[in-house]
Amino acid sequence: MSFKPIDESKEDFRLYLAKHGVLDALTKVIAKIQRLQPENPLEFLSANICTSLCLQETIKDLEMKIADANQEIHRLQKENERLKQQQMRFNHK
Questions:
Q1: 66 lies in a domain?
Q2: Which of 37, 43, 79, 93 is the most exposed place for a label (fewest CB within 10 A)?
Q3: CA–CA gap between residue 48 and residue 30 (Å, rounded)
Q4: Which H or E element spans position 35?
Q5: Which terms in the Gene Ontology molecular function aspect does this entry carry (predicted)?
Q6: Considering the domain boundaries, does residue 4 fall inside one?
Q7: What pLDDT digit, counting tens, does each position of 47-77 carry?
């Protein structure tokens, strides 16, 4: 039994695709094609890859908005605590 040596440039390209989620995205859509057997698999592939990319962008955007909102909540909690302490000092005078 003989093994073919791995073509380094092909392996580098495979790693690049895997790193950026391309292989995973394609595998998921191809599995969906196998399961659903759409009339036009290429059109289905194109539509589903685009949908996947749009969803990823939307998720990233929402994650950034959540992080910003959490920072604002933290800032407002600090401000609220400061104002409560100021009010307590004012009421004790």
A1: yes
A2: 93
A3: 10
A4: helix 22-36
A5: transcription coactivator activity
A6: no
A7: 888 777 777 788 888 999 999 999 999 999 9
Question: How far apart are alpha carbons 46 and 29 in whole angstroms?
Answer: 9
Could you tell me the residue range of the domain that residue 37 belongs to?
9-91
The rounded distance, in Å, linking the Cα atoms of 29 and 41 is: 10
Residue 59 DSSP SS3: helix
Confidence tier at 1 by pLDDT (50, 70, 90): low
Q: How far is the first Cα of the chain from the last one, in angstroms, to the nearest whole number?
A: 92
Question: Is 41 part of any domain?
Answer: yes
Tell me if 2 is assigned to some domain. Answer: no
CA separation for the pair 46, 37 (Å, rounded): 15
d(CA 62, CA 42): 30
Domains contained in the chain, number:
1
